[in-house]
Amino acid sequence: MKDDSFLKITGLSKSFGGVEALSNVSFDLKQGESLGIIGPNGSGKTTLVNLITGFVKPDSGKVFFRGKEITGKRPYTIANLGIARTFQMAKAFHHLPAFKNIIIPLRSPRVKTFRGAQYGERDDIAIDLLEEVGFERDSAVPLKTAKSLPHGYLKRLELARCMALRADVIILDELFSGMSMSEVASTLPIIEKLKEEGKTVVMIEHRLRELFRVVNCLIVLNFGQKIAEGSPAEVMGSEAVKAAYLGSEE
Amino acid sequence: MAGMLIYGLINSIIFALITIGFTLTFGISGIANFAHGAFYVAGAYISWHLLNSLGFPYPLAIAISVLVTGFFGAILYRFVLFRVRGVILSEVIATFGLGIGFLELFRCLGLTGYDYKLPKFVDGSLELLGVYVDYQRLIIIVLGAVLLLFLWFFTHHTKTGLAFRAIAQDEHTALNFGVESDRTAMLSLGMGGALAAIAAIAIMPLSLIAVEEGHHILILALAVGIVGGMESTMGVIVASLIFGLSQIIVATYLSPNYTMIVMLAAIILILLIRPSGLFGKFKELEERI
Amino acid sequence: MAKIRREKKDSNGKYRKERLDRGIKARSDTIFALTSYREALYLVVPRAVTIIGLLILPLVLDIWWTKVMIMACVIAILALSWDFIASAGMLSLGQALFFGAGGYLAGVLNYYWGLSPLYTIPIATIAGATVCTLLFLPVLRLRGIYFAMVTFAMPLILVRIIEATRIWGGIEGLSALTPLPNLWVSAYLVIAAVFACLFGFRRLMDSDYGLVLRGMMDNDQAVMAGGINIYWYKAQTLFIGSAAGAFIGAFMTHYYRIVGTSAFSIDYSILPVACTVVGGPGNFAGAMFGAFILVPLCEYLRAIGSWRIVLYSFLMVIFVVAVPEGIFNYLERKYHQFEHWVKTG
Predict the structure, then answer these.
(1) Would you state the pLDDT for residue C133?
(2) Under 8 Å between Cβ of B43 and B65
(3) What CATH number should be reported for the domain holding residue C93?
(4) Residue ranges of domains in chain A
(5) Which residue has the higher pLDDT, B30 or C187?
């Protein structure tokens, strides 16, 4: 196993009915690194996540994880290999109580091998995880059905579901969008802690200040193409990025 | 051989006629109309009554029954499906229940026996490549071709048709552009009903009007839709040709009893190879895998 | 949850009527906090009445009504199986397929090989469920509506194949099969099966396993993101559900001593759905409740012939549009609430 390329994608392309959502994007990520992906809306960021995690099959290009090809594998297979993701639009199980939402990933084959989490015990693990992402333990919040939770909680529920998988790569698709400033402030340390634990974090984010506190390299997408790559300082200095991204947005 | 081809073609057109209303509704509104068979029988039953009980002239009876059945379709949407829109479980149960309910209602109202037969449009037959083909079947061929052309023209060149396609592609975006999704869905069910009635009136003179036809037609429409791909007109045409020709071939060389096996085998095969059908292009279907 | 209903006035002041949930539910719907025997009884009585009542029924009913009760149990099992499959987001319109598969397998094993019901019923249950699951395996990848269409078409196509090719006795079917020992055995066998399905399914849905199924109905993408193979879970659900259907099909084969194309008839597809919708989908008790209302009603109305089907088809549509929660859920909600007058001024 060649550990130097931990998560590697080469020449990934995908078009939807003639519109090229992503064309020929590559990157190489080492274990423990963290990557930020930015770009204007519709630049293919979410498509990239969908391609890596198997929710969409690429037209061409390959995805490697720990040196093994995982292109076109099913989403649950990829999740079990250790790549977890959140969804941009929070996808909670609306009819289940919040903590029961976390039990579902706890039943996955991956987590079962980590801890012998048995029936009943899983409830406690779930509530612990929710506390970690800021659900007040002794309040009624973890017991409320997901549909009654405010948006910020749903996003953090996504994060908790991701953490429950104990994945090595955590892909956060615009986690902070729709969160209040204080929620962002309290969620950021959790992500930093995940990084300290050695997790590889991939973040798609519009809030650049928070993003730069976490990531040490950055990719900029525009119209499905990678227009810049490097450290945040390098990238933000590049003329191409200024023109394409910052210039067009402001 | 020529006979097999001609009858295979007729058979295929019959399949396409039966299916087109069902797939049109499904393609536009996403509603699988399990009451399609009931519409089909209703179309024929109504025109039979207009013809025999009320003594209307045949063309008028046909026009009225097509309009009335289409109206039923719109009513079904407005008063039943409208209330459960988006809950697939309820949509399916509602159309399924109404379909069976109405078919059985027709049975209770006396739709059994040999009296219920629509007259042919024109009697007589024609020799074509050494095969005798009656005028009714020729009319079916022409009607099928005209309807398919009309539908193509309708969905590509009229405002309502374009709205249909817009809704089928992306309901939310279409809403933003001022297409009324409910009105369009209602129209699609109305057109589905009317098309079922047209098919019934064209095809029924070849056999008896019977309640069983309703179930039979629904199975055929489902089979064609599943094999061809639900919302694709091209899929309907290709799947109809496959079924129409293969049934004639099987019936000629093996036995007419095996025609249903062909259908089952085709469904199972297509589900194994391409679950969304030959021309199915539902993005969600494959990409959600 | 307090809800204001109506107000009244008298010499002491104004009152309003308030409806409250009984405070015995803690943490979630399935964990109760009981403080007295009275509250325990309050939970136990409805369950005890159902169990004991059903066990006593064959003893007190005459033969005709016992047969009606057996029929109600049969439909109840098909309805429970439907509700179970539906709770994983799969919409079956072809319960008759499960029923017929079990029925024909038992019939063939008994007719051609002379196996006794002791063997045919278990074999038909497992084999029938396997066949049905394998048949629908490709459809599981598609949206629910496709599943509905294929399940609807399949039994009707099979009937036509059996009729046309004259296999397994053709239209006449296989007759003179080994009967079950007597009516008591039949009655208590189905009652046991109903209980096994009802309480088994309820238990399963309350477990973490059931949680995954409920999650799939809500949002299958999120379940996949949680590392769970939804197709495997759906296949398991389908297997369990179709096993229940196949079992009762095999049972009916020996009960009637004949199996024919009527085993695939549309009645066995529509009646279970009607029962579940009228009784109330989602919690299994409703499905059983519905079966015990509709089936006796149908038998009672046998005189009106095919109007029955019209009746329960339309009843089903009315319920699904107007009363989607169903009778049972409505009654349950009322049972868990009490009303009292509170002084407002």
Answers:
(1) 92
(2) yes
(3) 1.10.3470
(4) 7-249
(5) C187
Q: Is A37 on the interface with B (CB under 8 A)?
A: no
Judge: B101–C221 Cβ closer than 8 Å, yes or no.
Answer: no
Residues of C in contact with B288 (CB under 8 A): 143, 220-221
Tokens representing A208 are 């650049």
CB of A16 within 8 Å of any CB in chain B?
yes
Closest Cα in chain B, distance from residue C302 (Å): 14
Hey, are the CB atoms on A93 and C225 less than 8 Å from each other? no
C5-14, C157-166, C248-257: which has the minimum mean pLDDT?
C5-14
What is the torsional sign of CA A109, A114, A118, A119? negative
Superfamily of segment(s) A7-249: P-loop containing nucleotide triphosphate hydrolases (3.40.50.300)
- Residue C145 to residue B92, Cβ atoms within 8 A: yes
Q: What is the pLDDT of residues A188-233, one digit of tens each?
A: 888 888 888 888 889 888 888 888 888 888 888 888 888 888 888 7
Which pair of tokens denotes residue B106?
A: 């027709």
Q: Determine the residue of chain A that is closest to C226 in CA distance.
A: A105
Please tell me the total count of domains within chain C.
Answer: 1
> Between these two residues, C320 and B209, which has the higher pLDDT value?
C320
Does the complex come out with an ipTM higher than 0.95? no
Residue C100 lies in a domain: yes
How many B×C Cβ pairs under 8 Å?
134
Distance from CA of C300 to the nearest CA of B (A): 18
CB pair distance less than 8 Å for B287 and A74: no
pLDDT tens across B238-282, in order?
Answer: 889 888 888 888 888 887 777 788 888 888 888 888 877 887 765
> Which residues from chain A sit within 8 angstroms of residue B283, using beta carbons?
16
Contact C225 A75 (CB under 8 A): yes
- Give me the phi and psi of B104, to 5 degrees please: -70, -30
Six-digit token string for C88: 């994983």
Q: Is B288 on the interface with A (CB under 8 A)?
A: yes
Q: What values do phi and psi take at C174, rounded to 5?
A: -95, 125
- Our CA-based measurement puts residue B265 at a distance from the nearest CA of chain A, in whole angstroms, of 28
Nearest-angstrom CA–CA distance, A231 and C284: 58
Residue C42 lies in a domain: no
**What subunits make at least 3 CB pairs under 8 angstroms with B?**
A, C
Neighbours of chain C (3+ CB pairs under 8 A): A, B
DSSP string, A26-43: EEEE-TT-EEEEE-STTS
The full 3-state SS of chain C, as one line of letters, equals CCEEEEEEEECCEEEEEEEEECCCECCCCCCECCCCHHHHHHHHHHHHHHHHHHHHHHHHCCHHHHHHHHHHHHHHHHHHHHHHHHCCCCCCCCHHHHHHHHHHHHHHHHHHHCCCHHHHHHHHHHHHHHHHHHHHHHHHHCCHHHHHHHHHHHHHHHHHHHHHHCHHHCCCCECCCCCCCCHHHHHHHHHHHHHHHHHHHHHHHHCHHHHHHHHHHHCHHHHHHCCCCHHHHHHHHHHHHHHHHHHHHHHHHHHHCCECHHHHCCHHHHHHHHHHHHHCCCCCHHHHHHHHHHHHHHHHCHHHCCHHHHHHHHHHHHHHHHCCCHHHHHHHHHHCEEEEEEECC
Assess if residue C147 is contained within a domain: yes
Chains that touch A (3 or more CB pairs under 8 A): B, C
Tokens at residue A79, please? 């999740």
The pLDDT-based confidence of C28 (bands split at 50, 70, 90) is low
In a domain, C48, yes or no: no
Q: How far is A119 from chain C (nearest CA, A)?
A: 7
Phi/psi at A174 (nearest 5 deg)? 45, 55
Nearest CA in chain A to B285: A56
- Per the structure, the complete domain to which residue C311 belongs is given by 66-335
Containing B137, the helix (H) or strand (E) segment is helix B135-157
Task: For residue B256, list chain C residues with Cβ-Cβ distance below 8 A.
Answer: 164
